[in-house]
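Hi Y.,

Following your request, here is the sequence exactly as I used it, all 219 residues.
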Amino acid sequence: MCFPLEILKVRRIKSYFNSLSNRPIFRNSNRRAHMRAPRMIPCATELQEAGITFKKARTASLFDVSFTNGVLHVPYFPLEELTRPMNLIAFEQTSCLEETPLTSYAVFMDCIINTSRDVIILQRKGIIENKLSGEAEAALFFNQLRYCSFLDYETHYLAELFKDVKKYCDSKWQKYRARLFHDYFSNPWSIISFLGAIILLVLSVVQSIFTVLSFYKIS
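Below is the corresponding structure, written out as tokens. Let me know if you'd prefer a different format.
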């Protein structure tokens, strides 16, 4: 039961969340009931290997995350010592709010950031501005967000995005692409070896063509 003072706090915090968003995000009214929403999506490194591109969303809303045609748009997030959203997440968890957008966002960021490699990818895209001591500390920061959150994975505002990303990654072509990228393009030496094999193959074909042409010319 919410008391008057608590109701006032809820209204203020909900007004704060609405002020961060330029579009309605709190009700996921177009859910595909036949497909359960996944609890997790791959990290940024794995998403990139699967062919997903990251772009900084041109919006003032922290929650305006979207996924269209293999492109994941994520708003800019400045990360510094004073950035500690745990209290706001805890408020969402213990208040009478019907929706918990900050919790959804925290779970999303925890999913796409596992290691410092994921942080580097998002930094290069201008999505994260890391002012902490390093990428490892930034990754730890996001990994800790999940510990103070409970989420209804079927109804939260990013549930459809989770479904779309998983469906994209689970397609056969994307799985083949991810495997090819992991096996041949995961490090510079693999890329050099792959290109070397392609060059040798091309030279062999050219040599074979010249050999055949020389044979017919002599004949």
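The longest strand covers residues 53-56.

Thanks again,
Q.
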